[in-house]
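User: Predict the structure for this protein chain, please.
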Amino acid sequence: MAHEHEHELASRYDHHEVESHWYDRWDSSGAFHAEDASERPPFSIVIPPPNVTGSLHMGHALTLTIEDIMIRWHRMRGDNTLWMPGTDHAGIATQMVVERQLQRTEKISRHDLGREKFLEKVWEWKQQYGDRISTQARSLGASLDWERERFTLDAGYQKAVREAFVSLYEEGLIYRAYRLINWCPRCHTALSDLEVEHEEGYAGHLWHIAY
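Assistant: Here is the predicted structure, written as structure tokens:
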């Protein structure tokens, strides 16, 4: 005799349906949200923000998995637990992507637009493509507090960074001085060592200065 509550099992396990159902249920119930004020012991992790221009790779997946284990363990202990998500504007990388898009679609450069208009284009690009990282993190089941998601070009974030630099400078903990840098003559900006590809074989001279 069949029971009225029996359900026919699917021939194949649909992980998209199962995982999205439970993730949405956890998220909507506030299971990932930390309280603003609590007497419970605090525990927090801010993820190193991935570059908004790319996709998550195996290193991100490993880090998210380890951090998620720690976060869920502290939640089970009853701690007021915050795991804060965000993405990084990626500096030169984002600028190059948007510049190529402008050249391809509108046949103009960032110099033709000017600083403010170009920043508007960067924000438009971020709104269109910037959700890729958070979508991938959700698909991994990462229990991040999405109500606190940040982007490193957010106005509040920029203000906090400027205040930190000013405070460090006034306390004498950092200084400003002249030094040799990597300079891009096309972008008209300084580059970090990580953004420079060192190649040999160019005709020229490398001068060594003893001091």
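Residues 39-89+130-194 form a domain with the Rossmann fold fold (CATH 3.40.50.620).
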